């Protein structure tokens, strides 16, 4: 056989050197010659190719074809790495053509799948996503067919240029083959994401993460971020157990990253900074988890006016007692990540926060506190200096955690204090913000501050009514809160005006509902202001009427707006029907001087 000659040992040595140049030496290439080692590797591979051609006459045709295919594959990857995609594609296509008749045999299947993977990547880099999908799905189908029909650990492509004594163990072969297939699934997950096949993308991402742990083929930081991202998909589907599982696994695997010391400690500062940022990003995913779980529970529990429905609460508690035992065990089996030692750490992490809807204040508070801890962790990295937008988003999430916790609080005074905490965290941020550069965030904060003051005003009125009448201190407080709510709603509405301070004839879709709600709430707030001065009261009623009328007129001119503010429109019409008569009665009482 041709392999017996001395040229073969030389060819194997060149092949090995080429792979070392590509994988190891290329990392040390200077910026001025970024592909120096890759080009040297290419030259060696071309030499081996020529040696093979010279040996073809006396060699076994199939064996030589497979070896040529290995070289075409290596040259294909090499050209792709140096951004010569057309040449890369040619070599990879030649590789698959040579292997086509033998693609299901143990000495070819792994190479064929890896060639298909690389063609998939190459086409996705050209933004030809459908073509990429075809190659990758073909690789997936081949893996499944091989495992069904043969299943023995196939040869690794590098073994075609090794002596018998250098050949890999079955265990190592299996590990490398499974790693190639994991890559297929990883790229398919990205393709499906790109094609907006979100559910399929999530399924493939989950399988990829699971396999990476199984075969120890992962970088902890990258793995953790992918798992945290997947948790947000499950969150959007209200799958809280799966979401929590992904986040717990992300936190556990991420903690491994800190245990890997860098070779160059003096260059470690940037690495440490990156690690801190990734850790804060995972913390933000945990915040979203806690917030979504609390908000979803509120939706289940609230009545028509946004208060706790005690009957629903009782029903859900009873239902939960029945379901609890069966469900948790069943669903956990479907998603468990990794080996037993990782599982134990993940389970310990999961036990720190619930994945079932909180049904009372105590349960809600436990989830709130976990979320609040992650807020502090995220804010440590995302500080106002340097990360304005991120920092504000985290503070807004913190405020939203207080808002949803307040729903579960039965005591109105304590509920009021929670809203006050929101004011205390949002007002300083708003005061320091330049609306010229941060218009959208500025509007969000104006609206949220207005709503929070509005909520506090309502609570103070309710507290006063429970005490059978409002004393002068409470009246002062109610008026003050109402005025502050009006101030922020007006600031929000003013931000919609053009440079000449004219309010738009027609509002954009994204601000239509907030603007209408602001107008409606201001109308209501003016009617809530308490004064013993009847003339002032009449003025407030007139202002209130004007705001209600604006909403009705706007909806008449723009019928599309009706669906956005149906409830507010109905109530405005009702008030416009009632207010003039009330104002008339007040005028009559005041006599001819008004």
TrEMBL record:
Listed Pfam families: KBP_C
Record's keyword terms, sorted: Cytoplasm, Cytoskeleton
Primary location class: cytoplasm
Gene3D superfamilies: Tetratricopeptide repeat domain (1.25.40.10)
GO cellular component entries: cytoskeleton
Any one GO biological process: neuron projection maintenance
Keyword Signal in record: no
Subcellular location as annotated: Cytoplasm, Cytoskeleton
Function: Activator of KIF1B plus-end-directed microtubule motor activity. Required for organization of axonal microtubules, and axonal outgrowth and maintenance during peripheral and central nervous system development.
Family to which the UniProt record says this protein belongs: Belongs to the KIF-binding protein family.
The protein, known as: KIF-binding protein
Originating organism: Aythya fuligula
